[in-house]
């Protein structure tokens, strides 16, 4: 396991950008996997109020605490905004899930000193191994 992945998985708090109330969607699966593994996680979704019994928040800045790590399951054009918000909020680690990657966002995050995982690896695979 890479250092970046180890750092991400050892974070005390998480947010899932692109969390969904629909259980067949990856945003829901990632959120449930984080919660199911005993982690503190917050769903980010600008149009849904509740996901899996947890209050959903429109943006990172709306969360009750700044998460150390954010898993991103959004289209690349949305990923750019999520990353900008993460940088502004002081998030330390980002994991762009397959399909969410954006070169511009990755570069901005790395230049801001964040740990970035954007190599096509999937958090669900690693959480299943824990």
Strand content: 15-25%
How many domains comprise the coordinates?
Answer: 1
Q: Helical amount among residues, as a percent range?
A: 25-40%
Please state how the strands of the largest beta sheet are arranged side by side: 2-1-5-6-7
Number of helices: 5
Average of the residue pLDDT scores: 95
Structural class: alpha/beta
Cα-based radius of gyration, to the nearest Å: 13 Å
CATH homologous superfamily title: NAD(P)-binding Rossmann-like Domain
What's the end-to-end separation, in Å? 12 Å
Biggest beta sheet attributes:
5 strands, parallel
Number of strands: 7
> pLDDT below 50 for ≥5 consecutive residues: which ranges?
none
Would you state the CATH class?
Alpha Beta
Overall shape? globular
Q: What's the architecture in CATH terms?
A: 3-Layer(aba) Sandwich
Q: Give the ordered list of helices and strands.
A: HEHEEEEHEHEH
Can you give a write-up of this model?
- This is CoA-binding domain-containing protein.
- Residues 8-100 form the CoA-binding domain.
- This protein has 5 helices and 7 strands, in the order H-E-H-E-E-E-E-H-E-H-E-H.
- The model has no long low-confidence stretch (mean pLDDT 95).
- The chain is of the alpha/beta class and 130 residues long.
- Strand 6, helix 4 (103-111) and strand 7 (115-117) form a beta-alpha-beta unit.
- It has a single domain (3-129), classed as NAD(P)-binding Rossmann-like Domain (Rossmann fold, 3-Layer(aba) Sandwich), CATH 3.40.50.
């Amino acid at each position: 396991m890479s250092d970046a992945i180890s750092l991400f998985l050892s974070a005390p708090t998480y947010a899932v950008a692109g969390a969904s109330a629909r259980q067949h969607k990856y945003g829901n699966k990632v959120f449930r996997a984080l919660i199911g593994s005993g982690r503190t996680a917050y769903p980010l979704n600008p149009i849904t109020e509740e996901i899996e019994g947890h209050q959903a928040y429109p943006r990172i800045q709306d969360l009750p605490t700044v998460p150390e790590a954010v898993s991103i399951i959004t289209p690349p054009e949305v990923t750019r905004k999520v990353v900008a918000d993460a940088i502004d909020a002081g998030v330390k680690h980002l994991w762009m899930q397959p399909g969410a990657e954006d070169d511009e966002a990755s570069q901005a995050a790395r230049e801001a000193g964040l740990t970035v995982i954007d190599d096509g690896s999937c958090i669900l695979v690693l959480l299943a191994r824990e």
